[in-house]
Amino acid sequence: MTTMMVGLALLTSAYADEFKEQAKQIQTLYNKGIAQMKIGEVENAKMSFTKVLELQPGHGHAKYQLSRLGAVGKNFKLNQRKAKFASTKLEVVDFHESTLAEVVEALNVMSSEATKKAWTPNLIIQDPKGKFAGKEISLQMKNVPVAAVLKYVMEMTGGALFFDEYATVIRPR
Predict the structure, then answer these.
(1) CB contact at 8 A, 112 and 119
(2) Average pLDDT over residues 58-63
(3) Residue 144 CB neighbours (<10 A)
(4) In what order do the strands lie in the sheet with 168-172?
(5) Paired strand residues for 145
(6) What is the mean pLDDT of the segment spanning 36-47?
(7) I want to staple 136 with a disulfide (CB 3.0 to 4.6 A). Which of 58, 85, 97, 171 is the partner?
(8) Distance between CA 19 and CA 141 in Å, rounded?
(9) Is the per-residue pLDDT at 5 higher than 80?
């Protein structure tokens, strides 16, 4: 009987160690998935959370994170896009009585040149009621981010910026 009890104790201990190891692996995979989400690696995060669910099908947090991945990926791309407006600096901005269309065209070209054609803001004007007509922009600045130039241009014209994955739309407020 004592031998049987010792054997049972050893077997129970082995299962406990295996359970602890699997729990550690699940937590590591889950944490990895969260870290991947934060840096925009949506596909890798999906694989990590899926592996968590293979090991523990009822893992609620992994299920929740999987359900959020589409929105997280889109938000990450938008945030990256917005950050480019702040990080792209224009050496000289010099507009004199320019229309919004002229400024938009110039900013698209200037931004592309400033990043050696790696990025352009893809600025688009949507003004079906012609609220921007007749508004002139005069602005002189040096060594300033595209975001700052756009801030002043929006203030002068009464416009607002709307970001999407591929373009930045300017509409009247």
Answers:
(1) yes
(2) 93
(3) 16
(4) 123-125, 168-172, 159-163
(5) 89
(6) 87
(7) 97
(8) 64
(9) no
